[in-house]
Amino acid sequence: MKNKIATQLPTVSPSLSPWIILILSLCFINSYDGDFVFDDTEAIVNNNDVSDTPLWEVFQNDFWGTKLSHKQSHKSYRPLTILSFRLQFWLRQGLVSQDYHIINIILHSVICLLTFFVYNIFLGPEGYSTSFYAAALFAVHPIHTEAVSGIVGRAELLSSLFTWLSILLYSHTIQAKDILHVWAAMSGFTICITAAMLCKETGITSIGICAVYDIVIVNKIYPIDVINFFSFKRTDKKSNNFIKYKNTLLRLAALIFIAITLLLLRFSVMGFSTPKFQSVDNPASFMDNVLLRILNYNYIYCLNMWLFICPVWLCFDWSMGCVSLITGYDYRILVVIVFWFVFGTLITYMFISHKNKTLRYVIMGLAILICPFLPASNIFFTVGFVLAERILYIPSAGYCLLVIIGLQKLTARFSLSKTSLQTYAILIVLLFIRSWMRSNQWRNEKLLFQSALDVCPLNAKVHYNIAKNAADEGNVDLAKLEYQEALRLNPNYAQAMNNLGNLLKDDGQLLEAISLFKQAVNLQKDFSTAWMNLGIVQSALKKYEESEASYFTALQYRSNYPDCYYNLGVLYLEQKQHDKALKAWINATRQKPTHKRAWTNMILLLDDLGKTEEALKTANEALKFIPNHASIYFNVANILGKKGKYKEAEIQFKRAISEDSTSPMIYANLGVLYHRWNKLNAAEEMYKKALQLKPDLYSARDNLQKLYTLKASIK
Length: 715
Prior knowledge:
Layout: H1 17-24, H2 39-45, H3 48-51, H4 55-58, H5 79-92, H6 97-123, H7 128-140, H8 145-149, H9 154-175, H10 179-199, H11 206-218, H12 223-230, H13 236-243, H14 246-269, H15 290-309, H16 332-352, H17 357-370, H18 395-414, H19 417-441, H20 445-455, H21 460-472, H22 476-489, H23 494-506, H24 510-523, H25 528-540, H26 544-557, H27 562-574, H28 578-591, H29 596-608, H30 612-625, H31 630-642, H32 646-659, H33 664-676, H34 680-693, H35 698-714
Helix pairs in contact: 1-6, 1-7, 6-7, 6-9, 7-18, 9-10, 9-11, 11-14, 11-17, 15-16, 17-18, 20-21, 21-22, 22-23, 23-24, 23-25, 24-25, 25-26, 25-27, 26-27, 27-28, 28-29, 29-30, 29-31, 30-31, 31-32, 32-33, 33-34, 33-35, 34-35
């Protein structure tokens, strides 16, 4: 009886438990109709791998659509996650954010059920109650909001899904009675581990969890046994016991082989190089003092643990001053000491406690907590973030298990069954409400960014994103103020300089804009967007040679840059270098066949040069890629009208109207066509329609007056 956990919390019916967990997992459901927010834009909306890149290229690019060989690549290799995004795009023939959110919520619910099943494997029938209460806690924990309500969190969700499946299959490997079933289960396990790693890199840590499960749960080998074995403090009998673990040793050898193979493949994909990060991404890693660097890492571990315990302060980004560095005597050092005292107590408990089920369960909980977190710990390699809530998705399963084990122990020792149940119920309700509220903040960027101000008011990236959102909504004054605040907090914030420069450029403050763009490219030499914007301003100031040089520099750092080619073409057009302008726009449309402005400018220029047949041919080519673009039909109609092909021109004008019925110029020009065609009543109707849409359209008003004069003379 000594080895049995005394369970005082009431046992829930096995038929009811999964349903309760499913219902609780829906605490994030109010984000189902949210927008694409924050990283979703770069990873999904602006990522060609999600829409039209050849499939084989998905396996050559990182998560953001950048070539893995590119020096700016973050080396985040998650092709299966990208393919899941692409599948949804293909099914709907477009990006519908609601679909992506719904799939994330469904995945979380499935993972919560699998978490329950995995707990049951680890704890066995006698730990069923503990498994249920831990899984229910996992289902509602607010730390999961970023992974579930942020669409890019799909990487964590899919990786977690395959991680749990791999553990279930590894359990089948252990239980299999014949070699065929062993090989089948181990093959399935290997496939799931590989899939987990191709969804997110941390999926490989499942191997560590399985190893601990095999050693501690299945074989009941405790840490002290391992120490005694390697220190030769064992009897012959114990030595014989270790020899009989032949199958276990074979399984562990297989795990090591799989881990080494997958790691080698992963590093080969990266070109055996690590990503390069800036100090703003992870300031602690750039500290010269090793002791201070380690101290700051440990403080970050404390913050991660605090988010488990009290998930009140949650933020979409923790970089750029959100967590200030410890550079000397600081009260936060006491926090680190307390953290290691508690953690050290747990470690000590592992070695001095009685060898019972509780100890094995604690070890298992620690394994789930620690193993998936190791890649983010800065121990093996530097990561590109300070703290990220999404990476705590699987580790939270270990935390939840440890909490319930502790609650069960307290309940049994002090006979607090009713009090413990009430406390647990209150905790679940509070966490459910917090998850519901937090997921609502992820529904759109305005709510998300504003919520971050309460947590990280000194985070320059928070102010940058608020500014970006304000600019998108047309609130230019607020955008300028927030960009300036971002630069006050981080004077070397090149992206903020670039965006503020764009706002100043649009306001006609060209000299101020050019100063910001130059600062941005001085800070970040390969900042191609800033180089292009610098070229635009230089062109506006008639500094054509400098503008051309800036455009070429932008293309040097980013060869696939259709917008830059477009602006280069505009520069050549201003200099009346028509052949160069056409060549630049052709490059733009080759790189981006749906580049509307480049196609339109080519058609207009060819028409102005008198090359009407070539202009019409170009228009027909453009319509293959942008068949719904009214401007193409409009320009074709004007060309045909000038050639006297009134009937054909009329058809093109009507097509343009069908694509854009709110453009006054289309109606005005169709009126001109009818005017020339001597269809005066139809011309009058079109002029009036144009003036209804834009009363100050003087060309339509003048033509209408001429029409009335013509009608009067006819009478």
